[in-house]
Amino acid sequence: MHLATDTPAQLLPSRQLMAFTLASHILLVPFGVALPFITLVMHYRGLRRDDPVAMKLARRWSAVMAVQFAIGVVTGTVLSFEFGLLWPGMMGRWGDVFGLGFGVEAWAFFLEAVMIAIYLYGWRRLKPWTHFWLAVPLPLAAMMGSFGIIAANSWMNTPQGFSLDAQGNPTDVDVRRAVFTPILGTEYWHFVVAMFLTAGYVVAGVYAVGWLRGRRDRYHKLGFTVPFTVAAILTPIQGFLGDSAARSVFQKQPVKFAAMEIVWKTDTHVPEYVFGRLHSDGSVSGGIRIPQLDSILAGFSPDTKVTGLTSVPAENRPTAAEATLVHFCFDVMAMIGSVLILLALWYAWLWWRHRDMPDNRWFLRCASFAGVACLVTVECGWIATEVGRQPWIVYHHMRVSEAVTQTRAGGIWTMLGVVVVVYVAVFGSFLAVLLKMRTRWRVADEAAAGAAAALDPETDTPYGPRPRPGAGAATAGVPSGSGPGTGPSEGRPGDDH
């Protein structure tokens, strides 16, 4: 990526370190935001229908949710420190204006931690419906945390709620206006729905793979249909929200929109480029050129004037390389979103025809890849949002180079190397724990189906509350699918958690 010769040496390593940690953390965010809701949907189904299979899935998803939350604490805390360590210029000058968003996120984090602990604890110790209703605020806490972060980010994109003194420092802060910026609504709901789509498709994809491998039981059927249905319902809604978000960028950040669409000169009847590479002279190579479509998409008319990158001096806009990167990410999002809408319609058609889980192998293959595709769009969305704003860290008020730390570049490069090693170990441990949990659950299911087992392998699991003294012997040989209505332990469906 091109950097001007007069930029600080520490700018590039600081950007690379922030980009790596953010790109890593964002992979966990969909599960922190949406998995509590999906788990509670399955929990409600289990209680409402007295369904032990649904209860088993809810219990197991709650264990995954807890492990994911623990890993998210690590990666999220690193990001919090990096804001102050790498960008002290921004935090020092503007912290009083937009810092409330981070405060909201911190409160939501603590609430979520407490609620997850209560939810895990309650599987063995609370009455069924009491346990469920105590967990209902958990998805709301997760969404509140997202609100705080998106409020801060939307302020960086469209800053308001302050005045500037003679030295350029903010005064007369209006916190309400600083939080509720012009693009907060579209950015927040576009982000939240993206998190629900991603979590739903990823979880469903796990069970789609199992179904394709021959595990055609009700456990895999229910594990697929509930999260996939949630995601499929939201997919066309996300198409509308994405269009609204892009239109907000067109109105409030016209230069970023020009980067997203690689528009060089302000004009009407602007063509749309599907992919394509922008060069420093304004020419575009590769891709597919569709005449007038960009103007039509922006303002529903070919006469709509679209602001070009050359409307501002070169030092106040993304470079050609940055604009190409933003454009590619934006097109990847649009392409994957369109394919997911087709997948959701395919699912609806197959369900309407058979009134059952689709058994079409090509559909299931596509469904198994949908979650990975959503993770790609999440990464692309943040790249488009952050790189498209360059060179500003606070749009039109502070450049990234003005906010960067004075720490030597060599020290930041070393820090990046250490963080990469630590994150590889952390994510490797996360994957190892999930695989270990999967193995325990599979052995438990085999034991419940009639395989010989001296001890339920889930009774000694370290994920969640430990069994009460003497409970191990009492539960030896008890099928892991036991749940409400199956015996005297009714109301304690977490005995195999």
Automatic annotation (TrEMBL):
It is found in: Cell membrane. Residues 469-479 have a biased composition (Low complexity). The chain crosses the membrane at residues 20-42, 63-85, 97-120, 132-155, 188-210, 222-241, 325-350, 362-384, 412-435. One of its GO terms (biological process) is aerobic electron transport chain. Its main location: membrane. It comes from the Bacteria. This is Cytochrome ubiquinol oxidase subunit I.
